[in-house]
Amino acid sequence: MDEQSPSSTVSTRERHSRAIALALGFFSRLPTRHLETIEDEDMGRAVVYMPVVGLIIGLILVVTGLVLSSFLGSWHGDLNTIHLSLIGLTLFAILTLASGGLHLDGLGDCADAWVGGLGDKERTLLIMKDPTCGPMAVMVVVLGMLVKAGGMVALTISQSWLAILLIPVLSRTAGMGLFLNTPYVRPKGLGQAFSDFAANPVTRSECRSSLMAALAISAVLLAGVWPALILVLLLWYWLRQQTLSRLEGFTGDVCGAVIEITEACLFLFIALLV
């Protein structure tokens, strides 16, 4: 029994390592290790690490912001609003590139589908699969990016690095929440594999632990802006009810849209309160 423990420990670490690599590969455009084969268990466990993907992105933003602030501060002697605004726009660009537009694509698809679907489930799903981008998608994506850019600039000017760190965590936790308690409705869709194996009792338990940890830590560290957190929690519930009403579940595009909407609203609400 003792001889198997080290092997079991290494195996467990490897499984978690594979899941993190898979989460980074599917939910961001950050460089990660290449997996020759992907096991069923890896797919479900990757969902557990969605908040970790957000944490890594948040760390990149904060470190970059602090380095740029330090460099420009030493160069100019003092940072003014223009300098901090440009740093904020740089961080917004990094945030957008880190996700590779994956979630923005989902937001655009959902915008077109919700308007063009006319309340019909099958028509809505069909429009989501259409690779072309309609005027509603363009409008919603541009508005979402403007809100995030403005919020990022405001938080950078106020030096709210803790909020910049945790907003990507909370937005991806919102996406993970869909996998935890909402049916997946597109057969053979990319998210089907994640949803199927996230339904495993062990994986569901890990998802709950990950979700509760992310929410609890964020609630403590961002206690000063608790109204924003409450508003976003209510927003997530409303978005989930909307997708249940229209689709009786969610798709990968819906998950991306929820992440984008949650992130934009967090930037907006917190920026208004700090």
Automatic annotation (TrEMBL):
Top-level taxonomic group: Bacteria
Catalytic activity: alpha-ribazole 5'-phosphate + adenosylcob(III)inamide-GDP = adenosylcob(III)alamin 5'-phosphate + GMP + H(+); alpha-ribazole + adenosylcob(III)inamide-GDP = adenosylcob(III)alamin + GMP + H(+)
Pathway per the UniProt entry: Cofactor biosynthesis; adenosylcobalamin biosynthesis; adenosylcobalamin from cob(II)yrinate a,c-diamide: step 7/7
InterPro entries associated with the record: CobS
E.C. no: 2.7.8.26
Primary location group: membrane
Subcellular location: Cell membrane
Protein name, per record: Adenosylcobinamide-GDP ribazoletransferase
